[in-house]
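Next up, a chain.

===
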Amino acid sequence: MTTAPDPAAAPDLTPVLLGGDIGVYALARCFHEAYAVRSTVIAPAPTEVITRSRVVDAVALGVASSPRDYVDAALAVARRDPGAKRILLANTDWHIKVINDHREELAEHYALPVVDAAVAARVSDKVEFARICAELGVDTPRTVVQDFSTADEPGWRPAEVGALGFPLIAKPAVSSQYNDLVMEDKRKVFILPDAAEADRLWARLRAAGFRGAFLAQELIGGDDTAMRSLTAYVDSTGTVSLTGSARVLLEDHAPTMLGNPVAMITEPFDELVSQAARLLEHVGYQGFANFDIKVDPRDGRALFLEVNPRIGRNCYYMAAAGLNPARTAVRDLVLGRPDAPARLEEEILYSLVPHRLLLRYLRDEALSARVRGLVRAGATANPLRYRADRSLRRQLVVTAQEVNQYRKFARYYPEPTDSSF
């Protein structure tokens, strides 16, 4: 359920968004639905979904762009309309870092619903995140930290991980320390079936020059439907004023996109929301946050995997279910009128993949029935299919992307598995 746009509620609003992918388009749609304004999107090479959009003005920086190029482009937008009310957002960890690295300069011209650098660094470090969770009694998977900071020293040896049992999940503790690493068969997340494969990964990371921390974690069983996604906004008074949660139905399984939900049903998970809010307040968080949580099928425990210091690629599920996060941020930081706390309640099916493809991967008949019922009722949302942003060429691009999902899943995840890997 979306509400009609109200441009009078925030006159002269200029949203500026860093990045050029689906998550940024979703944000632009949120702003357009709320206030009937076009967003300026700054990216090296925005996708056609953005460049052919009627609700976005795209600024292409070129593939060799630097962080400074993003900042200069954002400042150029500000100079063009000095009387506008401006807000700046991003939807990847790297772009959030760009904002924080130049926060003082940008804050002169933009409202920034972005957590500050110190808190972002603390919660984005998965080692520190697990420690904070332990302090608060929030469950996380058992983990061994593989520290590569001294890997150049003679006699360095990787930590023993076998006590966790196999298979294991391996991933960087801090994504920003891994993003620019060049390594063959680089993945967002690795599966380690045995000790030999673990040793090979540690050797490859060391040889590639990685000198951060990598985590080896117990693999929590359950397919994609065991995942939960949670979005929160902490306003300028330190109040968690917006929360929403969803049951993941299917995730992307391409190596570089692994773990990104592509289909969800909104659903209130009150206990998880309460734990997340407690954690955010504990660390002094302000801005948008997105949590990944998995329910262990062995005992029903919800294990917090990580918090992302941003609104999340799939933020549009909030707007589709009646709580537009763009309104919340604008009222707080641009208009100076923070909302009373609100929690998402309405049920919708959010999906970036065709419904027929989604149903292939749902092994729980009750979930399949829920999906079919929401489709019949028209309670569905795809952020890329926006009635106010129709053009033949853009619709062809969106349709081609959806059809391509069949090929992607056939290649990377042909059948659902008990572990989702």
User: Anything to note?
Assistant: The two ends are 34 Å apart (CA to CA). Residues 167 and 280 are 31 Å apart (CA to CA). The first helix runs from residue 22 to 35. The first strand starts at residue 13 and ends at 18.
